[in-house]
Amino acid sequence: MARIHQPTFLEHMNHLQALKRAVLGVLLMAPALCMAWGAIASNPETGTHIATGHASAAEAEQEAIERCEEKGLACSLLITGSNAGAFVVYVSKGGYHGAFARDPAQADKLAKANCRKNNKVCEIRSAAWDRGAVWLAVAMSDTGSWVRYNNPDPEAVQEQAMADCLSNSTAPKTCKLLGDAAHKGSVAIATSDSAQLSYIKVALDRETAASGALKGCAALPSKPLDCKVAQQYSNDDPLPSPKAMQALEAQAEKNRAAAMRVKAPAPVKSVRSTARTTEHYTCETSCTNASCVSRFDDGTILHWTAQMKHDGFKWALDTSGCGR
Questions:
Q1: Long-range contacts, 52-58 (Cβ 8 Å, 24+)
Q2: Total structural domains in the chain?
Q3: Disulfide-capable partner of 104 in 39, 86, 173, 236 (CB 3.0 to 4.6 Å)?
Q4: Which tens digits make up the pLDDT trace of 20-59?
Q5: How far apart are the C-alpha atoms of 251 and 245, rounded to whole Å?
């Protein structure tokens, strides 16, 4: 009678004899660029909101919009990108202008050029690096296991692993995906000759996958002492943020902090302005700091407090509305 061990999530045990008969099928893909999706949503009042590291464009766009609309204001999608790279956004009086490119310098150049098409003054406001991601999947049957990895599409890698199992297993009706999902990181297979069993573990890094497979193998019912890692396969690591990207992020953060900092206006004797607010009346306004008095053509006098207004670059008193 075959000995059965119920595996935990992301783990699976096969009979070693069956594993030898079926031969573990591992199809290696050519090294792929780490791929994930990112998006930026924006609102004139709350700025830009970035989401990175998602498996699909729809997920990235949804998170960017949700982050942007947390303050209750409607937002629009500014840009979506994939395959790892730099998101850069410039701001001008005309709004936000974004770009995405693998090279941070190229993304910066494109965003700046987009901004300066119709604006003389532009400054970088947001910068973020999408590290990308690749996926692996393990399909198993009663007679073997098949691994696909280093694939930028999580759905495709699952389909490929299942197709391998269905095509090559002598028990195709028993094929199923390990964990019913695609995974990042590494997969390790530990075997025991004495117990004639094997144990599979998926983890985010090679060391954890290997140690987990060995631990799982050693915990099998017969407590074998000869467990060893027989096979291991790993996705490429995500791409780290380049130094050029770090410089852009620092400058964007500096500009963003400066734009959000509200400075009290310096004391002044008075500020006078005449503004037409509608076709029906004009006013003459005198202000001492933020305390204003507006006199209208019909003799009405209105005392009011001017509010600070940000035009995208600096804060200033807004006396254009005659207090109405």
A1: 52/87, 52/128, 52/129, 52/130, 52/131, 53/130, 53/131, 53/132, 53/133, 55/133, 55/135, 55/154, 57/82
A2: 3
A3: 86
A4: 333 333 433 333 444 578 899 988 888 888 888 787 888 8
A5: 10
> b/e string for 148-167 if b means 16 or more Cβ within 10 A?
bbbbbbbeebbbbbbebbee
**Per-residue pLDDT at 202:** 93
H-helix or E-strand spanning residue 299: none
- Please name the amino acid found at residue 248: L
In terms of residue numbers, what domain contains 292?
271-318
Q: Which of 72-76, 188-192, 272-276, 288-292 has the lowest mean pLDDT?
A: 272-276
pLDDT digits (tens, 9 = 90+) for 254-278: 988 887 764 444 444 444 444 444 4
Q: Tell me, yes or no, if the pTM score tops 0.85.
A: no
Which helix (H) or strand (E) segment holds residue 293: the answer is: strand 291-296
The label of the residue with tokens 């994930």 reads 36
For residue 45, give both structure tokens: 């009042």
How many whole angstroms separate alpha carbon 25 and alpha carbon 139? 10
CA 185 to chain centroid, in Å, comes to 17
316: helix, strand or coil: strand
Q: Are residues 56 and 120 in the same domain?
A: yes
Q: Which of 187, 208, 234 finishes a domain?
A: 234
Place of tokens 């509608």: 278
